[in-house]
Amino acid sequence: MEKLFPKMQIINENGEWNDETYRGEITEELTKELYTKMLRSRLFDRKGVNLQRQGRIGTYVPFEGQEASQIGSAMAMGEGDWMFPTYRDHAATMTFGHSLKTLFLYWKGRQEGCIPPEGKNIFPPAVPIASQLLHATGAAWAEKLKGTDRASIVYFGDGATSEGDFHEGLNFASVFNAPVVFFNQNNGFAISVPIEKQMKSKTIAQKAVAYEMEGVRLDGNDVFAVYFHTRTAVERARKGEGPTLIEAVTWRYGAHTTADDPTKYRNQEESVNRRETTDPILRLERFMKNENMWDEKWGADLQESLTLEIEAAVKEMEEAQAPHYNDVFDHVFAENPWPIESQKEAYAHSRGDR
Amino acid sequence: MTTAVDTKKLTMVQAVTDGMRVMMKEHENVIVLGEDVGQNGGVFRATDGLVAEFGENRVIDTPLAESGIIGTSIGLAMNGFKPIAEMQFLGFIYPAFNQIMTHASRIRARTLGHFTVPMVIRAPFGAGVRAPEIHSDSVEALFTGMPGMKVVVPSNPYDAKGMLVSAIEDPDPVLFLEPMRCYRSTKMDVPDGKYNVPLGKAARLQEGDDVTIFAYGAMIEVVMKAAKTAEEKGIKCDVIDLRTLYPLDKEMIAESVQKTGRAVIVHEAPGTGGLGETIISLINDTSFLYMKAPIERVTGFDTPVPMFALEDHYLPSADRVVQAIEKVTQF
What we know:
The complex is a heterodimer of chains A (354) and B (331).
Chain A: H1 28-53, H2 67-75, E1 82-84, H3 90-96, H4 100-107, E2 121-122, H5 132-146, E3 152-157, H6 164-175, E4 180-186, E5 189-190, E6 193-194, H7 195-198, E7 214-219, H8 223-238, E8 244-249, H9 268-273, H10 275-278, H11 280-290, H12 296-319, H13 326-329, H14 338-350
Parallel strand pairs in A: 1-2, 1-3, 3-4, 4-8, 7-8
Antiparallel strand pairs in A: 5-6
Helix pairs in contact in A: 1-2, 1-3, 1-11, 1-12, 2-3, 2-8, 4-12, 5-6
Chain B: E1 7-10, H1 12-26, E2 30-34, H2 50-54, E3 59-61, H3 66-77, E4 82-86, H4 97-104, H5 107-110, E5 120-125, H6 140-144, E6 150-152, H7 157-169, E7 174-179, E8 188-191, E9 203-206, E10 211-215, H8 219-232, E11 237-241, E12 244-246, H9 250-260, E13 263-270, H10 275-287, E14 296-300, H11 311-314, H12 318-329
Parallel strand pairs in B: 2-3, 2-4, 4-5, 5-7, 6-7, 10-11, 10-13, 13-14
Antiparallel strand pairs in B: 1-8, 6-12, 9-11
Helix pairs in contact in B: 1-7, 3-4, 8-12, 9-10
Catalytic activity (chain A): N(6)-[(R)-lipoyl]-L-lysyl-[protein] + pyruvate + H(+) = N(6)-[(R)-S(8)-acetyldihydrolipoyl]-L-lysyl-[protein] + CO2
Protein name (chain A): Pyruvate dehydrogenase E1 component subunit alpha
GO molecular function (chain A): pyruvate dehydrogenase (acetyl-transferring) activity
């Protein structure tokens, strides 16, 4: 079965061509855009970990290593499409429209972190596992019923494929031919449980066969492979040709969350050593050098400007006006039922506010 | 001046169908989905005829997957549709509990109102129709304890249609529970067109000064029988059909017990954690000094609903309700 789902790759670990199908489209402009977005998200991610260590935000969920998967796929989506992230997909959501401030606010425990900018269809991060696959299917199905050509993309990890909602999501999307891209980031672990203990199947892509849909396995650390193959899946969805299951094989260097200790279940030295072969940013940098697209000054300037952007977002997050406690009460229903209204009044009274 | 309103004699299940039909005619975004709701018209025929009238894009037979039905309804609801999702029985809702608890009921709160899921979940429930095991569960308290959900239970055909219309028009998710025992037990004049029975409002079914009986759904028939027996013994009951379980009609509950000073609460769901405890707490908050006796509850037991050979033992009976009425009046 593994042979039926080869890991698609456009550039290899050394940044050399493996598949030249898209050579004409891989311009310096596109390459630099992808590199910029990946570096931006990595610096954001490292800042997130540091802010948590300093107690300036709450538990943070890092993604370093998964930048190519998230950014390549998000870049394939268009205006008006829908995105259903998990709690780990900040690189995808910042590519699709979330501001850095919004993302930091989420980890600061602020509801505002769940709200996308006007006109951007980004759902709040799904905290349960795999439940969001059904929302993506429902939203995509709605677009189909409305007669638009908009599509949904939904993110999930390898552990999610063991949940019932994974199968229900694929089955509903298949039965109703919903324009949805199921984007799996397979990083080999569901917290501490390695994929060998998660499933007997050798690939996740092959699970598409059971649902009579396209299954694609790709190198999730090759941003070009992710971008072009996701774009194909989105085009297929727009044309009414149904859903696609994409398995992006990747690797995350850090912990599941900042509350977790990966050294208990994974050899971290080996993980760090994998950077030579798996780091998507290093790979793109090698490619740019091979293709004479790299300029040291450009790289240094970029690093500096992105650092400044991230610091500015941190400042905005930390200077954001504290939320009013009435936000606890005022958005559960369109109109407050009396139990919530009386609890709100009692709480205000207890604070001496009325 | 009065305006004549055309009515039809309908059973509750027919009134439910009529409520959906009226709203589907009025709003193109109202869709019905669930298992067997199309050609088969639902296991109780609640969606009978709708697919012929509105087509398969609006009355949708789904795969057999409760979480799938609710999860996709969430996506449809927040993207412009008004799904009415049918669970074949409330006892089959458990696979969908995660979707309702972690998403449907809290998306508005999580996004400060940016995303909402205006949807209705319909589910037949309750014992007394000799259904197989699991089918008869009465677990409404799981949902009244779920922030962000409204929970309603009609007990007659008129209310069923009017409350379903209100549930469909409600901007938030509503769990619409249909007592199976009431589906075909009575017929009633039901207006042809659209009308609303507001959510959050109880109904006084009988006036009395001695004791208040609170009930809902299939227990209404039981408590009306008990109230008649009590009246023969000289005890006059105020009978309140709660109709909406979240939020409760605080005003009517308080007004009635402040008049009678005594209360009996009847529901077939388990006693512990049941709605009766919430009502007692509400009476404590609003009317403690008016009470002349401790409040009595007649409820199902803290046991699984038994298979039907034993269900009559499980269900509150009129005799048990009469005993409770006598206990509070003789205190």
